[in-house]
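Input chain follows. Return structure tokens only.
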Amino acid sequence: MDAKTSSISIHDENRVIGEDDSDVGDLGFCGWMLTILSVLIVALSFPVSLCFTIKVVQEYERAVIFRLGRLLSGGAKGPGIFFILPCIESYTKVDLRTVSFDVPPQEVLTKDSVTVSVDAVVYYRVFNPTVSVANVENAHHATRLLAQTTLRNILGTKNMAEILSERESVSVGMQRLLDNATDRWGIKVERVEIKDVRLPIQLQRAMAAEAEATREAKAKVIAAEGEQNASRALKEAADIMHGSPAALQLRYLQTLCSISSEKNSTIIFPLPIDLLQHFVKR
């Protein structure tokens, strides 16, 4: 293309903007002669030529057609039947379905100098088949390579704690960066998910020891708080029973009932001190 050719549009699915990329009128004399010759061959060999000129693409596919190296006007064809002229036209099928691939584990040095291994899965689809064929040699391979570098770049700016606790924000940030970069290739990145974060063995042991110590400290605090609350409740119960001798007697009876229900061979009966006061005075 010359300097007058405008930049390629990435939002129009059916055409690539340009003054001479799909203009059949600019084929020149040789181009027109070859086109007329191809049409004559198809007409003379009819209906045998139909086997070579009729092509079919599925509902989820589009065909990008080139005539003598130039994109045809109208952009991608399909779904359904379309025609090509033998010898001067070629086409490329593009799948529009969502594709997923695994990003290989990447060794990343985090912001706090910890080496972690992280892998992810990326979901994307081709939204502009013409651009995906004309702008990049292999859009799928380029998207995979870009996903690996983007994953390393994003995780390099995060602390280890942020990577472990903020996976959702890391995935959203990676999806946004990938989508902006692949937009010019006709690729739409729909979703990115962080699959696994693997830490060094020494760091795993240190984190496990720290977590265990934290749990033990919390357990001791909870046990101490429970004993404190229990002592307060016992003190309040003792004060109530001290002011009400009848309540103390009822408590004795409840204790006897609970002991007798366990089928013990020996029962210790607590003798109230009030019964001995008469003998003590004597």
